[in-house]
Amino acid sequence: MTDAPETAASEAIPAPVPLLDPRDGIPPVTADPQALADVVAAFAAGTGPVAVDAERASGYRYGQRAYLVQLRRAGAGTALIDPVACPDLSALGDALADTEWVLHAATQDLPCLDEIGMRPAKLFDTELAGRLAGFARVGLGAMVENVLGFALEKGHSAVDWSTRPLPEPWLRYAALDVELLVDLRDALEEELRAQGKLEWALQEFAAIAAAPPPAPRTDPWRRTSGMHKIRRRRQLGVVRELWNLRDRIARERDVSPGRVLTDAAIVAAALAMPPNAHALAALPGFGNRMSRRQLESWQKAVDHARGLPERELPQPGPAPSGPPPPRAWADKDPAAAARLAAARTAVTELAERLGLPQENLVSPDTVRRVCWEPPRPATAEAVALRLAERGARAWQIELVSEVVAKALTAAESGA
Asked: Which residues does the UniProt record annotate as the domain HRDC (predicted)?
């Protein structure tokens, strides 16, 4: 007996075509002023949108700077630029000022591009477009495969891009990352137009392009993984001292802070409060590979925190700027919990009907804030004003305000 044939639907889906080499070959890396000037001239003379990508050395180097910038534009081909050798790309940014930039997950790359003088006035984010169009998988490889039918090799995404010289396989991978971005953009634009969502996407892209660079975090040491285990202020002081020392060392060495000392080690030291370097060495993360001098430096940070007067110790946490965690609402304000449950259900159902993720329809934090302190009365107009105050775009307000208003009213009336 032969096996049953596959369904017609599965037979109709062709296998993706492996994309192994850039169509124009791997371009040389631009690493000197004259080569950069040639790239600027070529891309200024190109036509249509420009595909842009950047590679960082996350997990290897301090910070999130770009170590390679890739571009592709019709009439100009592909360029690979070394921003270490060419740290100022503002001339290139100026040359492309009136051009639409095509990026995948734009908010990840825009900060490091901004640092070297490149900031788009207009962009198209293929990842966000995929989310709005309802694709379940929106990574670049999945999108290229599902939309264009090509398979990208993604084996070098997490390598140390600060390596010099960059190996040829890495450069091939980098060039391929922008090879089909404009084609993907064009296909997604047609899909969004067919679904009636193109205007939504354009508003989202405009908001990303207009957003200012992210502000530095207040008390970044509070984001240490495992902080939930810390209960006492003096232990918080140890976390702060060790975190700041680690950050200073990592910055000086230009290495990822986690390679200097792990978050787990910082938390372990804060919980144990070791009295000396010998006791510190027995804790996880401070093992045999650490030199005596290093151990003494970390121990001095612990001792400094131990000796701080009470008034200089950090408070348990920053003052809350919004509503409490939703899990606490039922105890703190049952009526608010009912409003949130109703609004969440209504928004989720609307998002499912529209075929897009709920968080892209409206920010969950915005919904929580509106439910915690709702307008009185909760009319669609009043809810729309609250959504606008929280930065919601016009398309979101138009779709969500009446739905949320009805949910609030129903919850208040006990319907």
From this structure: 232-312
